[in-house]
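If you are new to this repository, start here. Below is one unmodified record pulled from the training split, so you can see the exact layout before writing a loader.
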Amino acid sequence: MRKCLWAVAGLLILQLPGLAAKDEVFDYEALIATPLNPRVLKSTEANGIVTEEVMFHSEKDGDKDVEIFALFSYPKGAKRLPAYVWNQGGLGQATTHWTEYGAKRGYAVLCIDFPMPGYRSTGGYPIVSGLELGDDPRKTPIYHGAVALLKAVSYLESRPEVDKSRIGMAGMSWGGFYTTLMAGLDQRIRVGSSMFGTGNLQLGNIWWDGQGWDTKRDAAFRERWSRTLDPASRLRRRLVPMGWFATTNDWFYWMPALMQTYAMTPGVKHLSLMPNWDHAFPGSFVTQTFAFLDVHLKGAPAFNRVTPVNVVKRGEDLVAEWKFSGPRKVTSADLILSYGEAGNWTSRYWKTLPARIQGQTCTAMLPASSLPYYIGGTIYNADGFRTSTQLQRVFTPDFGIAGTAAVDYDGAGEWGGFEEQHINYFREHGYTAPPVSNDARDGKQAAVLNAGKTLVYPLYFTVGVPHRLSCFLKADKPTPVTLDLGGQFNGKPVNQTKEFQVGTDWTEVSLDFTPPPVTAVKLGVTFTVPEGSTVLADSVSFRPLS
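And here is the target side for that same chain:
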């Protein structure tokens, strides 16, 4: 069994001895020592929450003064409250949504306009244009965003509403990228909580490797990135509590990067993985992200911890087991499993297997398979919060067990029935949901395919394994319907197309497809219906032919 890297428990945040080497990019003491020049531009109050529009100085970049605009919310009459900086998804302009959300939970919350073009802050750096490094990291847009956040923490420290010993940071997507970076860089931050976003992006990311592994970014380039601007590079030096709330199929932040970041973090850490979700969350994940701040800024009960999964052979069976500890009541557990070697992190399917709890040990039976697979254990507490283990690779022949079990799952299972929960899955992701009809083959709803093209996705799969797309169609009158199954595989279109004659009774149609090896793809199916016809679709599935 692999040993955990659990650090010393508690709220004390220390620099790790022997690792306080001078930062080759950020002169931390000099950057936070520059004049803040804070001012309040406007103040409003509603329902007991005060929100201020504020400005403060970030840095002098050559002849350019970089000034930061921010929104600051807190309960009326607040004194010495816990506080955090919220970093917007996509580094969008500051809004009151998340600052007032935090203020209602008893925090003082600051959200900045990053110094990006067209924003209320000055600077005009194109931060979200990509992961640029250049010859001098201190001239990159990412650097200037980090400096702005250093001064954002300084601003919180300057306010009487804030207890400067209880300042954290949270963020989503690009905001999670910066939360991970700043938790390692800024010694005043007491906790970080990241929705999406991670470090170790040299191990693969959509900006560099979405068209296939980018060989122009060679090993030397990736190593220089990892020690300069990568969000994880400084975490190993601090015992700062850090939580990551992520999805297994995130288009931007891939599992190898997150797993390495989690593994190298020596302080109290938490991981929650939602299988078969892309860059979106169900609402419970949002609640959990902020509850993690409560633990380390308000003294709420600690999140439960889990050990890595241990895989053992017992007789002819292969068993995964992991243990948990902590004050929160554990109500259930399961294990996620995804077939195939490393890669295709954006579109691989994760199957959920039941797990049994005995005392503080969880166990799950593993299938014998000729394909390797990745697994991760999960426990749930009474609030529905997920605590996940790191992922690890399993190949059953390594344990002397022949691979005989069929690879079985439904890669359209998250949405293929078009029931209410399936439509919500589309909406939570920002995908266009087809209209629905109560004239269903199974369940209560079917999709309505109007004249023209209707694209539905994602389809999840194992590369190199033949799959069959199946669905049931029904037309208002006999009509041809074309199915086009495909996507951009490493930037190149790959698809299968077939036309079917559909009548007024439910008819099953199918299309076979073998997904090629890929680093990133979104696979979907497009239905084409001729003018003057309407077709219903139901019971879409995408299953391996094994």
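Two things worth knowing about this chain: The longest strand covers residues 49-61. Residues 306-399 form a domain with the Immunoglobulin-like fold (CATH 2.60.40.10).
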